[in-house]
Amino acid sequence: MTTVLIAVAALLLLAAVFGGLLGFAAEKFKVEGDPIVEQIDALLPQTQCGQCGHPGCLPYAESIANGEDHNRCPPGGEQTVEALSELLGREVLPLDAEEGADVGVKKVAYIREDECIGCTKCIQACPVDAIVGAAKLMHTVIVDECTGCDLCVEPCPVDCIDMLPVTPTLGTWTWHKPDGIGLKSENIIPVVNV
Amino acid sequence: MNAPLRNSRKIFDFHGGIHPPENKTQSSGQPIRSVSLPEELVLPLNMHIGAPAKPIVNVGDQVLKGQKIADANGMVSVPVHAPTSGTVVAIGPHPIQHPSGLDAPCIIIKPDGEERWTALHPITDWHKCSPSVLITRIREAGIAGMGGAGFPTAVKMSLKEGTKIQQLLLNAVECEPYITADDRLMRERADEIVRGIKILQYLVKPAETLVGIEDNKPYAIEAMRGAAQGTDIQIVVVPTKYPSGGEKQLIQLLTGKEVPSGGIPAQIGVVCQNIGSALAMHRAIEFGEPLISRITTVTGDALSNPGNIEVLLGTPVKHLLNESGVKENRLGRVVMGGPMMGFTLHTTNIPVVKTTNCIIAASTNELPEPAPEQPCIRCGSCAEVCPADLLPQQLYWYSKTSDLERAQQYNLMDCIECGACAYVCPSNIPLVQYYRFAKGEVRTQVAEQQKADNARLRFEARQARLEKEAAEKDARRKARLAASKQKAAGVAAPSVDVKALKAASLEASSAYKAAVKELKAAQADDANNVAELSAKVDALKAKADSAKAAVRDANSGAAAPAAPSVDLKALKSASLEASSAYKAAVKAVKAAEQNGDDNVAELRAQADSLKAKADTAKAAVRDANAGTAPATVAAADPVAELKKAVGEASSAYKAAVKAAKEAEESGAEDAAALRSQADQLKATADTLKAQLRDAKDAAPAATAPAPTSAPAAAPEKDHTAERAAKMKALKTSYNMLNKMLKDSNAALERAEREGSDNLDAQRARVEDVKRQADAARNELNDLVDQAKAGIRASGSDLKTMKLEAARTESALRKKMKELDEMKKSADEERINVLYQERDLLKREADIAANALKSALEEQGLTE
Hints:
The structure holds two protein chains of two kinds. By secondary structure, chain A is mostly helical. In chain A, 32% of the residues lie in helices and 7% in strands. Chain A has five helices and four strands, in the order ααααβαβββ. A two-stranded antiparallel ribbon of chain A has the order 1-4. In chain A, a hairpin with a 7-residue loop joins strand 2 (131-132) and strand 3. In chain A, helix 2 packs across helix 3. The longest helix of chain A is centred in the first third of the chain and has 27 residues, at 2-28. Chain A starts with a helix and ends in a 29-residue tail after the last strand. Chain B is of the alpha/beta class. Chain B has helices at 25-28, 131-140, 153-157, 181-204, 218-227, 247-255, 275-287, 317-323, 381-385, 392-400, 404-409, 420-424, 431-525, 530-559, 564-595, 600-632, 637-666, 671-703, 705-708, 715-754, 759-793, 798-825, 828-858, and strands spanning 33-34, 41-44, 54-55, 62-63, 68-71, 80-81, 86-95, 103-111, 167-172, 208-214, 233-238, 270-274, 293-299, 307-312, 331-336, 343-344, 358-363. A six-stranded mixed beta sheet of chain B has the order 1-14-13-17-15-16, sandwiched between helices. A four-stranded antiparallel beta sheet of chain B has the order 2-8-7-4, with no helix packed on it. A four-stranded parallel beta sheet of chain B has the order 11-10-9-12, with helices on both faces. Chain B is elongated and about 155 Å long. The interface between A and B is large, with 41 and 60 residues.
């Protein structure tokens, strides 16, 4: 009988000790906010374009954390879907984008400056303040800051904003991937004995 | 021959390496020569690694040889100088030395053939200059690493404070096949090189200085040993192996030290410079000459006259090939740089730049088309030859599948792209291109991540700004509201004035009354001063009247902006006033009749008109009461009963008050008693009212559970309905409380005037009522806010709906106008069309208006 009591007492003691430890740890190492939202947000392309139906990338990250599909980000493309799938341990879903949408092609907005009437509508629409200008004066896009979100195109009353694909410069150009097995790569210089 | 190749010091080794066919003899035999001036010199703004230089000349400018034409743009950048005198003919995009074949901004100079130098400023006694002066000179001379990478030399020489340099290494290995530029340079200009090395020694103050030369350049070794005689410069011979000339490999060879991954040689106390750079430094400091030319090996099977040429920077490759006797029919491809690390040119229009150490005009036999890629057989040869000790096979798999993370884990970024792995690969896999591709992807990813982070910051900053703006706007709105309230209070302030006026009026009338009494007494006594007294009475009467008029004016002025409930009060007071005026008039008439005055008829008429006025005022009060009463009627029976009781009690109270007033007027002794009775009655009325209020509050609560039993399909609607009911109840209770507050305030005021005993109790009650009223109002406000939020949450944006309604309405109005105009012209067909259009618009406007209305109603926000 005493053995049983001792065993029960020991277990109770252990339970109390570990419970206390857990309680202490829960208080001590409490995580503010939801870390998964931050991780998801870090994977999103931050175009703030709203194509996912949320007003910005962070709200979408929150929504993904709450169970929304993670394939609604056309600017991020398949890569983002895959990265999110890996992070969340979810299935890789096909990208939920409109038919014919040129996903993956980086674009930036250009204002045809002669046609700009200075209405400031695009400035208000830009989620990252990448358009400069003042009322009744010409506006222009800070190309380096433009995320290519498309949001300024719609409000323009004179349709003077074009989304143009980004052309590679010396700084952004990279070598392309070799064509693969059975094909020649013209950039290779084979050194032979002559 | 073997004797000079022996070393006095120990040579280390690095992993791997290959021994490709050297092909150096074609060009190493002839002395350095020069070529004629080309028609145009093309000077790219980025001949170096780093930011492109900024042009400081304009098209059409005359420039002198050695004149600076573009300034360094930032720290990691170097200026560009005119290689000869001439005219700037263009500044714009031109194909440059880049595997991409992209154009980049260049300054194009048309030489005038005069070779006129700009003024040069040599520093002959550089031993006396501080290192920083010399480094500035090196930077201003536009010197960038001449070995092939083109890193600004001045940046490499600007060591961090406290860095101790053990070894200064001079790279004269020149391990890549075909290239003999440094070989020839050492053979012909060893003295100048050594002088450059001395400047370098002065700048970095190393413990030892080592010049590494491969053992396949015996003449160069001999020349350098000769020149270095009597100095502390050691010439170290290293075995021929590719890529010994790689900076990290050379450091390992000569010192046995390894540069950490991602680090720079200075971290391990080593500075490494190409001997071409040393020579350029010597020219820049001791002659003041900027870097405007270099030695370039021009070789290959397609040339009849290969060799080393001292080329002015900017000379097109085409010109060099022509000057070297190119055999067009044999020409396969033109490579810039060596065959291992160089790239095939898209066009021979590309200029020679600071980093161009070799041009190979190869025949198709010499550098053939690459064989097609075959599958990897996992032979491991690549791993055996990798000089960076990497696992090329693993890197290949990860690069091929774009698994950048894994590739980076296998130190992809430490690959020096030497091409040894691809050289030995039996499957002809273009390994280096796979690595270059993967590296590019990694860089792009990093840049994109940076851009994304930047965008996030900007987005957040914008959000914060918008919120701040909204808050400021809200604060301004609130301030405006407060200001207008204060203004209203300013209007209400006269109500204090009204009080004062009332008091003055009362005083005046009491003075008048006293005077009248006196007059009467005098008349009765037949006193002498009757006339005098009557004059006084008249004056006092006039005063009292004016005071009354002032009170009336103030009242009407104050009443105007007040709410309907206040209106009711104003009406009541007006009615009371009118009736009292009437009573006074009647009294006056009676007095006049008694006195047998002449103006009795006049007074009577006046009294009649006053009576009429009083009657209308009373009627108005009744109407107003009737108007407000039904609004407060609730459905619940107990509430109605209570209401009735309240009504009875309050009418009893009113009657009592009337009686008390009459008693006071008549000067009866029981006035005080009557007043207290009235107060009691009021108290009962109040309690009844409170009960009524409670009952009303309870009523919606009692009705609320009923809808919950309804189908759960529309809980939201039920919720809003409940809220609407609650809101209605709250509104009525608030109104009642407000009224009570006013009543009790009035009672308190009266009590104060009369100096009643229970002032404190009354005050407490006023406070209590006030608190209740405030609570009710707060609750009401909360509910209204909730309802508004509900509208927002339900997705139907109220503002949009309002806008939509307004838009459709204005469209309809426009159409109607058009129709009217059309009617005059009487084009029937057109009118019919317009009618149809108008009907359509009308329907649309109705829909929009209804949507708005229903949205408002749904949330119980009927305006």
